[in-house]
Amino acid sequence: MPLDARADAWARLALARVPPAALAPLLRAFASPERLLSASRAQIAAASSPETAARVLAPVEGGLLEGTRRWLADPSHLLIAWDDPDYPKALLETADPPPALFCMGRREMLNRPALAIVGSRNATPQGVENARAFARALSTAGLTIVSGLAIGIDAAAHEGALDGEGSTIACVGTGLDRVYPARHLELAHVIALSGLMVSEFVPGTPPLRQNFPRRNRLISGLAKGVLVVEA
């Protein structure tokens, strides 16, 4: 399926990694990502700064751009950006909302009442069971459970949530064309079918250490509160 101009423009901006605080006024000035990317360097600099203009128009790594385009060509793969009515309103109220989210699954879950359940990767059996039981009960009550797909408490929270009506959102620190840790490949597949997988990182992004703190702000930003089990 050919990629529409809007999605392609947002993908290019995601690869450019322009800070949200600098990108927001530019999008207000140019009205759309397509018009922003077709503007001249001088026009962009006049609405921001020479440094921001250079970043917006800098060539992106061709392999990553083509890989992102191929990923988005699949109808089951979604790009939800600031100008999309489904972009989570809770994230827009945070200090650093990502301009675009890459998603797989039920997009309507982004704006449902949610609670995050997180905790230790080296969880005890009791901690795992507690996380699973809390997630199951809260999901049955209609809350969406948000976590980070890590081993230990995160995985237990996702598993428990899948048993209830609220289901689960997994916010990950890689591109959605890969699963980290690899042992959660089957769990990620089930979440993509019954819940929602979310990343701000373009397809092809590996599990870099610095990406996981950024992933954590999505978890907290999507949730009304956070339950920590065995930190």
Describe this structure in words.
By secondary structure, the protein is of the alpha/beta class. Helices cover 46% and strands 14% of the residues. The chain has helices at 5-16, 20-30, 33-38, 41-47, 50-57, 62-72, 89-92, 125-140, 153-161, 185-194, 211-222, and strands spanning 77-81, 100-105, 114-119, 144-147, 168-171, 196-199, 226-229.
Provide the descriptors you would attach to this structure in a database record:
alpha/beta, 231 residues, elongated, 11 helices, 7-stranded mixed β-sheet
Would you kindly provide a brief summary of this structure?
This protein has helices at about 5-15, 20-30, 35-40, 40-45, 50-55, 60-70, 90, 125-140, 155-160, 185-195, 210-220; strands at about 75-80, 100-105, 115-120, 145, 170, 195-200, 225-230. With about 230 residues, the chain is an alpha/beta fold.
- List the uncertain runs: none
| Biggest sheet character | 7 strands, mixed
Helix residue percentage: 40-55%
First and last CA, distance: 44 Å
State the helix count. 11
SSE run: HHHHHHEHEEHEHEHEHE
The total count of strands amounts to 7
What's the arrangement of strands in the largest beta sheet?
Answer: 1-2-6-5-4-3-7
Mean pLDDT: 94
Class computed from helices, strands and strand pairing: alpha/beta
SSE map:
Blueprint: H1 5-16, H2 20-30, H3 33-38, H4 41-47, H5 50-57, H6 62-72, E1 77-81, H7 89-92, E2 100-105, E3 114-119, H8 125-140, E4 144-147, H9 153-161, E5 168-171, H10 185-194, E6 196-199, H11 211-222, E7 226-229
Parallel strand pairs: 3-4, 3-7, 4-5, 5-6
Antiparallel strand pairs: 1-2, 2-6
Helix pairs in contact: 1-6, 4-5, 8-9
